[in-house]
Amino acid sequence: MAYPEDLDAVISMVLMADPVSLSVVRQRFRRWLTTLRWPEQEIDDVVMAVNEAVTNAIEQIHPSEIGAEVRVAARQYAEPDGGRRVLVAVAGGKLWRPEPAGFRGQGLLMIHSCMDDVGVSREHDGITMMMTSAKVPPLTYEP
Amino acid sequence: MNGFLGGMPPAEQLMTLNRDDRDGCLVLIVHGEVDLSTGSRLMEAGSEALHQAAGRPVVLDLSGVDFLSSSGMGLLVALHDEGRTMRTPLRVVVDETRSVIRPIRTMGLDEVLALFGSLDEALTA
Known about the structure:
The complex is a heterodimer of chains A (about 140) and B (about 120).
Chain A: H1 5-8, E1 10-16, H2 21-35, H3 40-59, E2 69-78, E3 84-91, H4 106-114, E4 117-123, E5 126-132
Antiparallel strand pairs in A: 1-2, 2-3, 3-5, 4-5
Chain B: H1 11-14, E1 15-22, E2 25-34, H2 39-52, E3 58-68, H3 70-85, E4 90-93, H4 101-106, E5 114-116, H5 119-123
Parallel strand pairs in B: 2-3, 3-4, 4-5
Antiparallel strand pairs in B: 1-2
């Protein structure tokens, strides 16, 4: 890897499946990407997408899953040209199916508009939503 | 980290609401972040304002809003529809320079809501 920052560029958290967790995840992602010197607009996009994915997971926590958690992890990586992206994974309750909820499913539309790629991967303990951000310029160092 | 929530303020502090009567309009001033945790409070206050306006326009001032989720945008549409049913105009103030204008445009809400760039514009409309 070309950038020493990449070694540290991971973030992960376990959130209570409750709406109060949303401001926590937004604040932590904003702080993390600011530290990694991401442009303002791309930070807004990632924060928006993560907020919508976690919202969807929280809205669809099944009543049988008392004390459920939402797990969020992200990693920054560099492409061969030095451009950087983040890959974000959001795992909801065991019964979570990332699908329309709330504002007639507009959250998913919003996620797609904020991220370059969105997919789901089926794990043994449920579904994980994977989101790849837009590409931002390489870090440059002042001499 | 201060416990499970990492020292985050409760939803009451995340979004604050203030009401004002100005130039024949009922103004609801919103500050902070509108998401799934704060949206129901805004929905209630907005709905109450529409009912108490008695035909006067209701102005929802979002100039001080830092974050607006899709759930927040959903409630703006719901309030807009409620106002139309009651024949009470709902005017929404969004500062063009703030980041919340982008998701509003992405979702096409600028085609649905009566948007104004400043409170003065909304009051004199």
